[in-house]
Structures
1.
Amino acid sequence: MKYFLLLSVIGLCWAQYSPNTQQGRTSIVHLFEWRWADIAKECERYLAPHGFGGVQISPPNENIVINSPYRPWWERYQPISYKICTRSGNEDEFRDMVTRCNNVGVRIYVDAVINHMCGEGAGSGTGSTCGSYFNAQNREFPAVPYSGWDFNDGKCKSGSGGIENYRDAAQAKDCRLVGLLDLALGKDYVRSKIADYMNHLIDIGVAGFRLDASKHMWPGDIKAIVDKLHNLNISWFPEGSRPFIYQEVIDLGGDEFTTSEYFGTGRVTEFKYGTKLGTVIRKWNGEKMAYLKNWGKGWGFIPSDRALVFIDNHDNQRGHGAGGASILTFWDARLYKMAVGFMLAHPYGFPRVMSSYHWPRYFENGKDVNDWIGPPNNNGIIKEVTINEDTTCGNGWVCEHRWRQIRNMVIFRNVVDGQPFTNWWDNGSNQVAFGRGNRGFIVFNNDDWSMSSTLQTGLPAGTYCDVISGDKVHGNCTGIEISVSDDGNAQFSISNSAEDPFIAIHAESRL
Ligand code: AAO
């Protein structure tokens, strides 16, 4: 009994840090702006068969419709109500997605926009994705309902009512983020409305939440909301499971408050991860891959079991949010694949893979003036994600998660799950390698010259298929073959002009 109590206390404490993925599935993918109908299909036809643990979806609740610029992606970060009703689909389609994904062991994580409602200048009317009336000036959102009492207008101490200094804790939390009407999360009424929304989603079967703009909410307010949340739906999750919580806190250092203040309620997005890895792989500021030997805490990152990591996200892939020019994206495909490969091979953090759509990027004075452009659409209606014969996506969807190198590294991470970081090797420059116990090994050549080295892999002897240049198909390898000798050594040759200058082998790619 004592034992049981102890276990359940530990269980409760750790719960919101665990992603609730199915056993052996170790990463998730953000299907940015996808329709629910397409996500349901993707779970069944691609994500489950390739070992993806889950999907972060775009905000599912009713948002304002913005026509100038025309239907920007960011209109979804301006809530009007908590009805499940957006360009991605209605509640029936949402339920169908959650059910079908869960049935094949792929979890759904909701991007929860709970810090604010729409912008202060949004006017009034029924111009929202579900047609609910709102009046931004009067702070009226009858479909929730919220009124003037439910916002922080009186509490904010900045001159303009908006956040003027992100580093000032009180301003960051009590004032309007880029003019967005700031909810009074200190009020139990507001907390309850938000918890009702999130519980509705939990009851449908979601596994957790990204908490948008967490840096703009007091940790105590987040805790009060999280404490009101139901356990996960027992149709798919063990009894007593708590929703996975990961909080969007941009902390590149220098703020009055830190990421660690949010550890009590869940994991936190580690923005330094993509910023720094981008700098290293681009070889900016004298950085080299050899320095990655102590990647993780050694680089001043938050503890691994509190970190949600990613190379790019929907903001910083287009110059929003933080991270700056070093962020790697699909636009720099060759370096990007190396960065994602490194992330998925390395044990630090819980990783999220980005899956994007194309937009006509156009720089003026260093800024992408098309950074607002929404997903592929016909007159505002989001286009279907079509699948080409070669398994890539059509209709303007990039689908990085379907790129062979990325998809195979998602599998690599599952195969090496639980194995230690071992057999680090580097040439003092940008040729590096490391293993994960006796289950996997990865080698990078990001130098401007070719590499040819014999390295200790830690793997059992045999011939292995490199999952970056090819696949193991019916026992044969369509890419480079690597032979590991009885002592665990193998010879690796990687040209600096190779299409993908890295090689990865693992227990299940053995021929
Ligand atoms: C839109 C319009 C606005 C308009 C507003 C209201 O663009 O002009 O005023 O509507 O009508 C998204 C878009 C916004 C959009 C919004 C609502 O990105 O453009 O506004 O929807 O439609 C901060 C927050 C972070 C936030 C990020 C974008 O901390 O939470 O800004 N991300 C989330 C979402 C995002 C969404 C929202 C929040 C709102 O992922 O998609 O916005 O729901 C500093 C601060 C950061 C701050 C950045 C902003 O970063 O520290 O906290 O992020 O600035 O640029 C160095 C520093 C670093 C600094 C950085 C600045 O790197 O070290 O600290 O420089 O680049």
Note: The CA atoms of residues 22 and 105 lie 6 Å apart.
2.
Amino acid sequence: MTSPDPVVLVLFGARGDLARRMLFPSLYRLAAAGRLPDDYAVIGSGRTAPDSVDEFRDSIRDALAESVDDLDDDVVQKLLQRLDFQSSSADDGSELADTVRQAREKLGPDATTLIYLSVPPTAMESMIAMLGREGLADGARLVVEKPFGIDLQSSRALQETITSVADEDHIYRIDHFLGKEAVQNILALRFANGLLEPAWNATHVESVQIDVPETLGLEGRGSFYEATGCLRDMVSTHLCQVLGFVAMEPPATLEARDLREAKAAVFDAMRPLDPQRVVFGQFDGYRGEEDVDDDSQVETFVAAEAYVDNDRWRGVPFYLRTGKALADKRRTVTLTFRTPPSPFPGERPEPDELALDLTDTPVATLDVNVKRPGPELATERLSSRLELTPSDHADDSLAAYERLLLDVIRGDQTLFARSDEVDRLWQVCQPLLDNPPKVQPYEKGSWGPESAVKLPGDRGWRLPDQSDG
Ligand code: BG6
């Protein structure tokens, strides 16, 4: 494998939580696997500088020790040596521009600048404008963290600013769910299996659930959550992107252009969400959390019914659910199949269900009706588990941010959202921003408000049956 061209990675928000928990550990893993270019530099940035570069390096060493088992000291050392810090703000990025210039000069004319903006949506536009003024964005790849804006209008303004400094083919809108092996595996299951693809449509599928409950609460992110809420943090982004993979037509190829085109077509066909068919919840105790308003109406839970009005999916409800402080942490996509006319006596058989657990080592569970052993021709329900990770490759999987950082380095936009996708998803969600459903309280450790439990109808959500919750 030839080494990619040298890169200068500029990381805004380098002292923040995402950088410590995800980005630096991912860089470390890429370095340990020999996937980084031979020559690279990492420049951390943010409004407040550490006392010294050494202090910054030490803090990153600590962060790595917290996240990675069996750290290889040699790899850590080499990574830290390439790490620098230069403070900057939306008003002033001149010193940062100098530091980047020097780093590029050291790496030679082939060096590419990658700028990772791990900053809140409200700060994004002014930071990008600064990059433009300082010439930092020229020829650089810009990685933008979600949410992209906070509504349709702000996302369009952000898009205008961003395209005034960089071309669309240099913009990487990151949604880390698409970096997950298990999410990419949806494409393999669908498009490489003659058993599944012919049945993956409204003729055979009755409903789909995309269920991402979390047990975590706010984890000190009160001010982020107050500004963002669960709809923007999880639904218009992660859950909809997963829906895009579940619902897309077979792309002509797996190249960035075709795959993103197929996903964008799903969002184009999505019906704007109906506030009457969406439940917002807030866990008890949320208003007592740090940086949270005493009267906050911000939702920490969303359950929604969505539709994709195209030939493949017309009439099939997609139920999306996610929230904080719930009974279980899962990421599960469930397809419920229509029941055939059955000669078996008694009640109509239960529908077949295929549940894909999008865990690090993905698993599928297939619930089917089988013959109950004995002298009668009668059926019984059986749940079978399929492991979806080949055991001899289990160690080869990349963590989501690791994969996506590698793709930015390689210049591959396949797993990043295009601007028209983002625009359309805001259009789909905008009715909820204009007329938000009233937030319903729910107990921590529950499955959310009662009205959400009933949203998918009599069969309910699949998950409570499958866990202790
Ligand atoms: C992040 C959200 O993007 O995704 C968090 O900001 C959420 O609120 C997290 O907890 C979930 O990601 P994962 O990979 O842990 O399922």
Note: The longest strand covers residues 205-213.
